Amino acid sequence: MGAPPAGAEPEVEVPVAAAGTSPSGRPLLSLALASMMEEVRAHSGGVYLLASDEPVLEMAVTAGLPRAFAAPWERVGLSAPIPVADAARERRLVWVGGEEDMARRYPRIAMVLPYAFALAALPVATADTLYGAVYVTWPGAHPTVLSDRERESLTSACDRLAVRLERIARHNRPLSTEPDLLAAPPSGVAGTLGTVEAARMVGRLPYGLASLDLHGRVAFANAAAAELLGVHVDDLLGTQPWVSVPWLNDPMYEDRYRAALLSQHVTSFVALRPPGDWLSFRMYPSTTGLTTRISRARAVAEMVGATPRADATPAHRLVSISQVLSLAGALTEAVGVQDVVQLVADEVAPSVGSQAVVILGPRGGRLHVLGHHGYEDPRTVERFDGLPLAERTPGTHVLNTGVPAFFESRQQLERLYPDRHETPDGFAAWAYLPLIASGRPVGTCVLAYAEPHAFPADERAVLTSLGGMIAQALERALLYDAKNQLAHGLQAALLPHSLTPPSGIEAAARYLPAMHGMEIGGDFYDLVPTRPLAAAVIGDVQGHNVTAAALMGQIRTGVRAFTSVGQAPEEVMCSTNRLLIESGADLFASCLYLRLDPEHGRAVMARAGHPPPLLRRPDGRVRVLDLAGGPLLGIDSEATYPTTEVSLAPGSVLVLYTDGLVESPGVDIEDALVGLGELLSENGDQPLDKLADTLVRHSAAAQERVDDVAVLLLRAEADG
Questions:
Q1: Which of 115, 175, 468, 580 could form a disulfide with 262 if both were Cys (CB 3.0 to 4.6 A apart)?
Q2: Which residues contact 429 (CB under 8 A, 6 or more apart)?
Q3: Contact 217, 238 (CB under 8 A)
C-alpha cells in the first residue's frame, strides 16, 4: 500500500488472472492472507496482483477492514510512491512504524488516513517472477519496530503464496473471484451482547448504546440511542448512522469511525442535533466492530450557548474525498511536464479505470502532444501533433470551449468526428477533459478506455474536478520547463562551446548542474589558447542563480582578457580579484589558474581558496597537489596570490574540479578525495572524455548533487 535498480538483472513480471479461489475450490488468497495476519496478530491486510496487461497492481482481496478504507488504492501503478508499490518494485519488505513514520515517508497516505497504525508491505514473487504484493496493518499500539519473528513469518508466508501462484500460472489455471474477509455482522441482540436478560438490561440503560459492524452499519441500538438520534430503531438497523441520521451526514463523523477501527483506540466526538442539542459519541473498537455510547454533551451545550447551526448541504462521501486528496497529493509532486504525464498515467488513470492517457497543449496556434502513455503504437498519438487549433477534433474543441466531452463508444465519437475513422487508436471510450488554470486553457487531458465505458453524472463530475487539478500541475510544470530551458541556455552561453588545447596537451571538461533549484550556477572553466603559453582556469562563484551565473561570465571574460595581454598567473588572479570587488556584487569566488608549458613539461599555478587539483603520474600514482594560495576572490583588494610550479611528465593527467564533485552531506571531504584519487588511479588510462564521464558519474558526491560540478581534465601527451 515501479523499475529495478540500475545494473540489476532484468526481472520477469508474470500477471496472474483475477483474484480468487484456486482450481481446487479453496480461497487461496483469502486463506493465505488470514493465516499471515493470524501469525503476526495483524489487524487488517490485503493482497494485490499484477494486472495482466499493464504495470499496475490491482487489489484482489482484503481482510479485517472494509475495502472502502483503501479505495484510493484499488489500482496502483508499480511506480507509485506507496508501500505496496515500493515493495513490489524493489522486491523488499517495506515497514512503516506508525503515524509519524507514515507522514514523513508517505505523506499522501497520511493525508488520507491520518490515524495511528503500523504497516508492512511485501512482494509476492519468486526468484524471477513478480506476482503482486501484500500489506498488513496493526493498531497504533504496535511497537515502532517490526520484530524478527514477524519479519520472518511474513516473508515465509509471501514466499509460499508466490510458489502457489507460480504453480497455478505454470498450468494456465485461472483464479476465480473470492470475497473479502470481514467478520460477519452480528445476528441479533443476544449474539452481540450475550443473554436475552443482558439485552434487556442494555435496553433499560439511561444512555444510548449502539453496535456497529466493520462497515459502520448499525447491528443493534437501544431505545435511548434511538431517542437521542431522533430516528426509530427499525430505521437505524442495517444502516450507517451518517446515512440514516441527516445531521450526522458529515465526513468528520465517518472519519472518527475509521480512526477507531484502524488505530483500535477509543475515539470520541460531539455533534449538534438541530436545533440546539449537543450529543457526545464515544466509540469502543474491537476487531469485529464498534460499540458506541451516546449521551447528552451538557458541558459543550453550556459552553457554546446551544447556538443552532444552519443545516449544511450533504457532504461528499469520505471515500471520494480520500481519492481526491490522494490524487491531489500526487500531482503536487510533479515538477516538469513529463512528470505530470507520468503521474496522471500512474495515479489518475488507474484510479478511474483508464488504460491510456494523452496530454495536449496549445503553442503557436497549434495543438501539440506534450506526452502520452499506454499506446502500443506511439504514431497513433503523434500524428495529431501540430494540428491547427481551428481543426475540428475533440481535443481542439474541448480546449477552445472549456467544456469536457465524454464518448462512451467508438460509434459515438465517430458520429461527431467522422475523420476518426482514419485514425483508430485501439480504444473504445474516451474522456476529454479541458485543463483550465488561472482562467486560461493550458491543455487537454485525454483518458482512453479499452472497453466501452458509461460516464454517469457523478463520474463526470469527478473527472472534471480531476481535470482542474491536472491543469494546475501542468501550468506549474510548463513554467518550470520554460525556466529550465532559459537556465540551460544561459549556462551554455556562458561556458565555452569547445576547448582548444595547445600542442602537446589533451583536454576534456564536464559541467553538471545541482539536482535541486534552478539548475544554473556559478561554476566555470575555460582553456585560453594564447601563445606561446596557453592558460587554463576553473572557478566557482558563490550562489545558484542568475546573478551568480552572470558574474561567472564576467570573471571568465576578465581572465581571458588579462591572460591575452600577457599578465603572469599571480597578476591574473590579482586583477580578477579587483574586478570582482569593483563589480559591487558582494559575492565571492574560488579560482584555480594555471599557465601551461607542455614543451618543458610544467605548469605554473595560482590558487584562490579553490580545492587542490589532483595529479596522476604515468605510473598510475595519484597525489593531491599542495599549492600555495590566497583568499577567495572578492574579499581583499590587496590580496596576493603566490604561484607553484608543477611538473607535467608525458602521460600525466591533471584533474581540476569544483567542490561539488567532492562535497556532499554526510561525506567526509578527506574520504571523498581519497575515493576520487582511487577512481583516477584505476581509470586514468581511459580516453580523456570517457575518464571525465567516469569521474562525474561515480564520485561520492555525484549521486545526490547539492552543488554544481565542473571538471577540467588536462593530459600531457606522451612523446611519439
A1: 115
A2: 407, 408, 409, 410, 448, 449, 451, 452, 453
A3: yes
